[in-house]
Amino acid sequence: MAPSSPTKIGVIGSGLMGSALARAFASAGHEVAVWNRTPSKAKAVGGGTVAVENLLEALSGRELVVVSLSNYAAWSELFSSAGVASALAGTTLVQLTSGSPGDAREALEWAKSNGVDYLDAAILAYPSFVATDAATVFYAGPRPVFDRHLGTLQAIAKNSIYVDEKIGSAAALDCAILEAYYGGSLAFLHAAAMCEAEGLDPKTFFAHKNSFLGLISVTADAAQSMIERNDFSGGQCSLNTHVAALEHIVRLSKDARMSARFPKELLDNYKRAVSAGLGNKELPAVFRTLTQD
Ligand code: NAP
User: Fold this and answer.
1) pLDDT tens-digit series, residues 135-156
2) E strands of 60-135, at which residues?
3) Distance CA 153, CA 24 (A)
4) Long-range interactions of 178-182: CB distance < 8 A, separation 24+
């Protein structure tokens, strides 16, 4: 259903993600102009969007400008070109390019010095998830600016979550979730490779997916509570015992002549906590040794 008053939106970047975002806004009934460095890709977005070749035309007179480029360096180079700041007068800039909290802080400095309202966002979705319940977008910046645009922004993700006024907070949460995802994925891929190296079909391991996912979930809950209380004692399993288990994993990897780099790195981290005197504490005590280099 078309919104009662369509929002004029410029979407900068017609890559895989930018194209999906632009089509989602258009399909919700908004007026969407798309711009891309390579104009043919902007023309291919379709779905009721209008491709424009002039960047300033894509920015001028929009209530929202949504940016989805490869990185902040590309955004910074593009938005420092002549006429961009004045074309953005009265517009809210929503940065959906992925980056670090430091990138977000630099972008806010630019927005402030050019009088532009700025929200820094992080999308947790593949392009095919956009506009479905599987998409989540985190936002950081001034709450009133977020509230003003929430109705429009929900076209890309109903699950549009305000994190904090601190401009780096959406990127920080995104990096944290992605680290857990990449680290967890590497761990289960190494685990499957260990099974294969020992002549065990990896599907036997994957059949027990719920065992390791369940353990991670229970440990995450315990970690949250222990970190809050700053008390890592408990009667379940000491770090000393966990280190012994990790040593078995390193030995298996070496015996099977496969890469032991990943379990060795894990072992080093857990051993560091033991060396710091935490050997009789529970596993989440490693947290204490991770806040310093
Ligand atoms: P992509 O398909 O590679 O698109 C990259 C876009 O950036 C293209 O429009 C490209 O223009 C543009 N670009 C790169 N350098 C530029 C420059 N110097 N000046 C102007 N434009 C430049 O990447 P994507 O998958 O859409 O990702 C876009 C952003 O979304 C990234 O920050 C990514 O981390 C984030 N993201 C993506 C996903 C995903 O699943 N794809 C998920 C979450 C977040 P040209 O077409 O001219 O090269």
Assistant:
1) 999 999 999 999 999 999 999 9
2) 64-67, 92-95, 117-124
3) 10
4) none
CA atoms within 13 Å, Cβ hemisphere of 253: 21
Of ligand 1's atoms, which has the minimum distance to the CA of residue 122? 44
Q: Is 123 in the pocket of ligand 1 (CB under 6 A)?
A: yes
Nearest CA to ligand 1 atom 8: 15
Q: How far is CA 77 from CA 16, 70, 200, 275, 293, in A?
A: 20, 12, 51, 47, 32
Q: Which domain covers residue 196, as residue numbers?
A: 172-290
Same domain flag for 158 and 125: yes
* Distance between Cα 178 and ligand 1 center (Å): 18
Residue where a domain terminates, one of 166, 188, 208: 166
Are 17 and 127 in contact, with CB atoms under 8 Å apart? yes
Query: How do residues 28-69 score in pLDDT, each as one tens digit?
Result: 999 999 999 999 999 999 999 999 999 999 999 999 999 999
Name 124's bridge partners: 136
Instruction: Give tens-digit pLDDT for 261-281.
Output: 999 999 999 999 999 999 999
Look at residues 116, 149, 166 and tell me which one is the last residue of a structural domain: 166
Q: Is 19 in the pocket of ligand 1 (CB under 6 A)?
A: no
| Helix, strand, coil distribution of the chain in percent, nearest 5 | 55, 15, 35
The answer to whether the predicted template modeling score (pTM) of the entire model surpasses 0.90 is yes
User: Is any ligand 1 atom within 6 A of the Cβ of residue 181?
Assistant: no
What is the distance in A from the centroid of ligand 1 to the CA of 18?
7
Residue with CA closest to ligand 1 atom 34: 98
17 CA to centre of ligand 1 in angstroms = 7
